[in-house]
Amino acid sequence: MDDFEEVRPLGRGAFGEVLLMKQTSTGLFCAVKKLGRATLTAGEEAEHLAEVKALQALQHPCILRYYGSIQSQDSLSLVMEFADSGDLQQLVKQQADSDRLYEVAALLSIFAQLVVAVAHVHAHRVLHRDLKPSNVMVTRGLSCSGLLSVPKVLAISSGRLKLGDFGVAKVLAGTTVMDNMTCVGSPTYMAPEIVSGEPYGAPCDVWSLGVILYELASFKRPFEGRSLGELVMRISSGQFQDIGTHLLEKPSPWDATGQRPLARIDQRARASLDLQCPFLLCFKGRASKKTSGGPTGLPPGLAPDRAMDPAITTHVLNTASGSAAAKVAVRLSRKTGVAPSGDFLWEPVQEGVTDEKGRLGLLEGLKVQRGEVYELIFDVAGYFADQGVECFYPSVKVAFVIQEGHHHVPLLIAPFAYSTYRGC
């Protein structure tokens, strides 16, 4: 640790402390989780090393960046990215204290980043096992006031959520963790199979996401108890109050995203596969001519009656690269079914290229039916290559549902998708 100087303490836990430190050789500020070996059992030290192993494979814009670990005779230190604006629990408390529920756009912006982070974790066969707001860090630019301003929601790349604390993460060897005696995590956010001592797998994280969404939408928790036993009983029963009426706006994102995570394990297995789908959040929108500031909570230019507005591609490119929109190839496909693996099946419908202003000519003259699901794929790989920018993903995928016989879009056009490109 000779290359680091302590700035200030960030927190203290049962096994050690977290310090804000500055690397003198680079000027980088980082959070250092320092554990004293004298107070660690062999099992606790193994958990720390397991966290290191998990983090090494999980480099992602919505996950706290792992810089490295330092071991000495006296301590084990984990060097992580420093999130300079606290955690999601503090953000939610600030919003709750203001006595204003989140707008739909803001709520989905927060939740979608959590979903895409968990999807990445599961893709690497890792379970987090302790998903809760206090384990989600917040970086500069993602503030309570900023989230309430819809245009800033779309410009969220300057600040985002970062999933952290993989201290009890588990690398999966199969589809489930066959250790029904391992009860880890925070009781309020635990899935029924964990509190019941049954084998568990990826759906346990999906359940925790559902609890977090419930809390984001209502500032309440779905399961409460005067004792741990009562809490476990309520979780096991799976009975919770419908919070649709608590939301300021309709349509409610809870209808499509919250009920399924807090469901039986067979249904959550379906939801865990959905985490890996190109579009992660779709809510049941109603056609409206109102834009930003109106009751729909949709960003400017993305009201349902302006579904193919240039704002779609403009926001994708501007937020991804910080520059003006340019020509990008776009492919439109229609969902035809679901494969045995759980992936959606698509058939190509149209292809096109946006003009310099980001405008699209797709869907013109296309015969559609109510309830059909379409996917738009913006091929941005070539665009980023021309700009000399490295990017984790070759395309931006957006989906929408046909309603009322024409192309209304009841989908917030993925602010999390934009944020994953910035600074890649």
From TrEMBL:
Catalytic activity: L-seryl-[protein] + ATP = O-phospho-L-seryl-[protein] + ADP + H(+); 5-hydroxyisourate + H2O = 5-hydroxy-2-oxo-4-ureido-2,5-dihydro-1H-imidazole-5-carboxylate + H(+); L-threonyl-[protein] + ATP = O-phospho-L-threonyl-[protein] + ADP + H(+)
Gene Ontology biological-process annotations: purine nucleobase metabolic process
GO function term, MF aspect, one: hydroxyisourate hydrolase activity
Residues annotated as binding ATP: K34
Keyword Hydrolase assigned: yes
Keywords: ATP-binding, Hydrolase, Kinase, Nucleotide-binding, Purine metabolism, Serine/threonine-protein kinase, Transferase
Residues covered by the Protein kinase domain: 4-280
One Pfam family in the UniProt entry: Transthyretin
Similarity field: Belongs to the protein kinase superfamily.
Protein name listed in UniProt: Protein kinase domain-containing protein
